[in-house]
Each structure stands twice: as structure tokens, then as C-alpha cells.
Amino acid sequence: MFNSFGNIFRLTSFGESHGKGIGGVIDGFPAGINIDLDFVQTELNRRRPGQSLLTTARQEPDQVEFLSGIFEGKSTGCPIGFVVWNKNQHSDDYNNLKNVYRPSHADFTYKTKYGIRDHRGGGRSSARETISRVVGGALAKLALRQLGISITAYTSQVGHIKLDDNYTAYDLSLVESNDVRCPDPIKAQEMETYIKQIKAEGDTIGGVITCVIKGCPIGLGQPVFGKLHAALGGAMLSINAAKAFEYGDGFKGLKMKGSEQNDVFYNNAGRIETRSNHSGGIQGGISNGQDIYFRVAFKPVATVLMEQHTVNLDGIDTTLKAKGRHDPCVLPRAVPIVEAMAAMTILDYYLIDRTTQL
Prior knowledge:
The chain is α+β, with helices and mostly antiparallel strands. The chain has helices at residues 37-47, 107-114, 130-145, 185-200, 228-237, 258-261, 331-356; strands at residues 4-5, 10-15, 21-27, 64-66, 70-71, 74-75, 80-85, 150-158, 161-162, 207-214, 242-247, 265-268, 271-274, 282-283, 286-287, 292-298, 308-311, 317-320. The two termini are 35 Å apart.
């Protein structure tokens, strides 16, 4: 399996949903970075289950324990090892799924590829694996903070309810003011009501998360196979339930003429900038110093609490009805995961840029 992410900054994760714990090892993290352990835990708290009525009722403290690489509040440059112990597994909830394939889950492909699968919560394929990503992303954020780079994601669409304006029209400081993590209070209330309705039906719903990276320097990324937007896209599409990625104007730009979409350059007090940002802060695969913004589409959670048709391990038709504690909508808890993957990607490409400059 490919269990590592990154080039110079590299996260290797381990653990399963219902195993003893989830953890990771981070290589290539710069020495001398101030490590705010409370900040790292806060990032995990944003991802953890049971935080609101919009998420799974599973109660996990998700307390991170660092094992190496940090001394007297600073990174040492050595590998940073960490673990989060699982505390609240209800493995019996999955016994009725042991011999069947859940629709739209990794059960069938995983079993066919490896000849074995952990049916308890999906095992390695579970979204609980993203704990390691959030820890890695929190550390990357701390390093990027010293470079003046910030990353903010938010829920911009749930089902048919969406924000109509560009991210610049919203106060992103309001993202954490509601459970759905949307910067528009009115739309946030509509989204929350809709998610609760879907949950009461035993069903699930998907949507879109928008992410904005500010302060990124010019020059990150390579012009051919190391394009920055390709790296961000690969990072986002590695997240469970992510189905699509677009940056800048994306598909909306197809309705525009080239003369309308081109980002015209001008001299802003000695600094070359663009009057618009349809490119999303990346041109030719390389960051241009403007805000980087992109969107990630997430499908409805595959586990629905209603009877569905499927087949068993022998290919015989049957039905199943899932039990347990599941998210009716992944978006609120996916916001910090999107930020984490973006942070690790940007830090990795910053470190790559330093090694390629003479």
C-alpha cells in the first residue's frame, strides 16, 4: 500500500478504524519550529466525531500523544512520531456487514485486491485514518504561520443549498461560528436544517468545501509534472468521499472568453500583480503570489440507515441495513481535513522550492 504523502515533508500514517490506535511519522519537518500542542489538539477537535448534532454520535477524545521529534516546545528536525488511541469502538455494530459488500464502499475493491478486509468500520479505508493527516496538517500550519501563509476552508454547498458569491464576499472569521462551518450565517442555518432533515430520514447528503490559501510566495510548483494545482488536486482527491476538484474559476470559466478570463498584470507600487484572479493563484503550474483558491466536491456518505440491495461474498443477492453511528454529511468534519492536506502540500512544495534554487 501507499501509506506516505509528500516528498521532502512526508507523512506516513498507520492504523485502522477499530484497531488500537491511529498514528503517523513525519519526516522532513524543519527544526526550530515552535510547536503549539494546544493548537494541534484544537485542530483534532475540529475533526473529531460527536462534536454536534450534524455529525456521528461516536464519542472519541482523539487526544494526540507525541512520541518523538519535539523538545522543549520546538521541533528538533528528527522524525516526529505520534499516536491517537481509539477509545470508543462499537465493533459489534458491524457484524451484520461481515459477509456482504456495502454499496459504494471500498469493501468489494479492497477484498478483491487484497483477499482480506476488516469489516469493522472499513478498517484502513475508514475516514478515521484522516486523524493522521490533521496532525500532520496542524504541524505544517505552524511552520507556514512563520512564513505568513494562512489556510482557511469552509462549507460552501450542502446538497442544493450553496453560497453564490466568491470567497472574497464573505467574512471567513465566521467559519467556526456555526456547526456546519459556513461563513454565511443565513445559509449556514439553512444547511444545518437540511442536514438534520436528511439525518432523520436515515439518509446522507454531500456538498462542496472551498479552500483559500493566502500569503503563498511566488514560485511554488514545477512547470510540467510537478504542477502545484496537480499536487493540491491529488491531495484533495485522496480524502475519503472526495469526488471532484477545481481551482480558480474552474468549470465556470468555460462560459467566459479568453479576453474576459485573462488576469491582466499591473505594477502595484513596484510589485507585479494581477487585476483579477481567475487563475486561482496558479499559472503554468506555479504559484503567482495571488490567493490560491479551490473547491472540493464530496459525495453523500455511503452508509445510509435504510435497507439496500447488495450481494454477499459469494455474489448472491441479499439486502442489508447498516447499524451504528455515522455522519449524515461529511462536510463539517472534512473542513479541517481539507485545510490539513493543503497545508502539507504547500509546506512540501515550499521545501522543494528551496532545494531547487541555486
